[in-house]
Each structure stands twice: as C-alpha cells, then as structure tokens.
Amino acid sequence: MSGLRIALLLWSCYGWLPQLSAQTFDIEQFEQAFRPRLRVDGRFQPESAFRDTTGQLSMLEGTAVATFPLRSHFKAGLQLDTAARGLKGLLKNSIRLEASQLLGSVRVGARQVQLGFDSIGTRQLYTASAGLMGIKLTRKHRVLFWSANVNASEEDRTIDALVPRFNGVIGKLRVNGLRKQFFYGLAFSYTDGLALPVPFLGGMAPLGGDWTFHYTIPAQVAVGLRPKEGTRFLLGVNADGFRSGMEWQGERVNMNHASLRAFVNVRHRINRTFQMRADVGYAVLQSARFSGTDLRPNRYPAEPALVISAGVNVLFGRSVMQRLLDEVLK
Fold first, then answer.
1. What is the CA radius of gyration of the chain?
2. What is the pLDDT of residues 238-288, one digit of tens each?
3. CA–CA separation, 89 vs 110, rounded Å?
4. pLDDT tens, 85-140?
5. Which of 73, 117, 158, 311 is 20 to 30 A from 325 in CA distance terms?
6. How far is 89 from 77, CA to CA, in rounded Å?
7. Residues 6+ apart with CB under 8 A from 86
8. Of 72, 11, 26, 52, nearest in space to 321 by CA
9. Is the dihedral of CA 22, 150, 195, 169 positive or negative?
C-alpha cells in the first residue's frame, strides 16, 4: 500500500485516537479520547515550492472536537471461582467487573490552502463529522474499543456536491502497568470511492528512567521523556495527510495531501481540567495529488516544510476509561 493511502487512512480513521496522523499517542491520550472534553487545535505550514511546477503550497487550519457521554455502566461484584489455583488466582478470577461507555463526538474544521496553480488564490476547505465511540472491559481485563463516523470534507465551492465519507475502528488495548501498554485492531475508511482497510498495532514500553518508546504501526514511532509529573516530550517520525473535495477547472475533484514528518511534541497538564500542547515538525517528504481529473501528471511533489501546531484540551468530569485505568488496569 502506498504511503499516500496509509496517510489518508490514518487521517480519516484515527482522528478520535486522537488524530494520529497529526498528533501522538500514549495511554494518557487514549484515556482522554474516551472522556467528555473539548479539544481545540491550530496548525500552520509556511510556503514551500512545488518541485515540478510553479506555485507555492501553504496551509493554515483549525479544528474543534467535542466528546460527550451517552451511556455509562460500571459495576463490581464478587463470585468465588472454585476452580482457581492458589489464592492469587482465586482473588483475580472471583472479581466480576462490568464496565462500558458509549460516547458521541462532533468535529468541525477549516483549512486555508494556497496552491498557486490558477487564478484562485486561497482555497477554503471545510470538514465536519459526527459519530459514536465506545469501550467495554472484557472478561480478561482487556479494553475493547471502537469508533464509527460519517464525515464531509469539501471546498466552499463544492459544498453543494459534497460526498459523505465513512470510517471506523475496532481494536483491543492491554495495559501492563503505568508505562507499558499494547493495542491492536483494524481501521476502515471509505472516502469518495476510496476504500481502505488497514490493520494496526502499537503501544508504549519503558526504556529506563524517565524515557519511553511509543509506536503505532504504520503511523508513527517516537521516544518520550517525562521530566516531571504533568509534562511530556515526544521526539519521533509520523505519517500525515488529508483528503478533501475541491473545484479544479470547473469540476469537482479530490485533493489528497500526504507527508512524512519528523516532530518534537510537548504536552503540559495545567490542572485536572486544562491541558496544553505544542508541536514543531518538519515535513521531510510531501506531495499533493488530484483525483477525478484528466490532468497529467496529477501528482505534485513539494519541497520540505516546517509545520507548527498548538492546542488545548478542556476536560469535563471523570470517564469510565479513567476509572478503569486508575482503579483496575494499572
């Protein structure tokens, strides 16, 4: 599978986890994805030249995501397991814990893209999505998670011809202590005629001291440092991309942007409610491709570019996922 398709899938399917193609993953972010919250992000990529044609590529974007609970269930009980071997097995197998949560999510975003190919100066691209996500604790104390969304991504000139897009994720998470987790699953995306099923796996493992190793295959690898409680640095490489409808020479086409970037990310927890983050990256490889048009060639590589982003999380209340991590899995 091409790097472009992987990047597009990551952008469309992993947005709730949260937006892995442009952000990073660890257990703290996983817990926050399944928590009532408001997440706001801004991002800027200065101008970079196309290699094979005239014009400049630059982007300015902002997104907001709201997550809210629809149904929650958390129940603990005791039922002796007479077949258990030893006291440890008896205690572990006799605890009956039921935990699940269903949440809704709404996401809106706007992106200004400068191409310089024609008389249209700045392209105004918009995206909106709504969906459901859920978690459930299994008998073996694994977290089953899933997400399903419907999305529209269009330029302001093509909103009257928008095409709905669909994506979903299903997977399992295993937690072995505070700094060691493993997850795996399958992501699926259908975006305007492009169907992409991709398996994924990832996790976090301690490297010694305050260092950890993070991986999400095929999205990202990174090394983390937590110098003090509430602050985290990540240094790594990840795939990034987006797909949006737009007008090109009088017809609707899809613009596909994909990149491979190195990044440094810092997150700081101000208190239990507010968290801030900043990210500086460098798109080592990037290109724009246009589908649904007779233009040849329709793929335009661009020079490397700086990418700067910042955001804030506003957390509301305690989630079932947080209770599982605090009281059961850790």
1. 21
2. 988 888 999 887 888 888 898 999 999 999 999 888 999 999 999 999 998
3. 53
4. 555 555 555 566 788 899 999 999 999 999 877 667 789 999 999 999 999 988 88
5. 311
6. 16
7. none
8. 72
9. positive
Cα of 202 vs its chain's centroid, Å: 13
- The domain containing residue 29 runs over which residues? 3-329
Domains in the chain: how many in total?
1
Which of 44, 61, 57 lies closest to 115 in space, CA to CA? 57
What is the DSSP code string of 277-308?
EEEEEEEEEEEEEEESS--SS-EEEE--EEEE
Can you read off the two tokens belonging to residue 37? 């919250």
Among 9, 8, 22, 31, which residue's Cα sits nearest to residue 310?
Answer: 22
CB 264 within 8 A of CB 236: no
Q: Spell out where the chain has E strands.
A: 37-49, 56-78, 95-114, 122-137, 143-155, 165-175, 181-191, 194-208, 211-217, 220-228, 231-248, 251-269, 274-291, 299-302, 305-315
> Tokens in use for 198?
């991709």
Integer angstrom CA distances of residue 250 from 97, 218, 246, 285, 296: 59, 36, 10, 30, 16
Torsion angle of C-alpha atoms 79, 90, 204, 61, degrees rounded to 10: 10
What's the CA gap between 188 and 9, in Å, rounded? 8
Q: How many CB atoms lie within 10 A of CB 98?
A: 11
Q: What's the DSSP call for residue 4?
A: H
pLDDT in tens, 17-34: 333 333 344 555 666 677
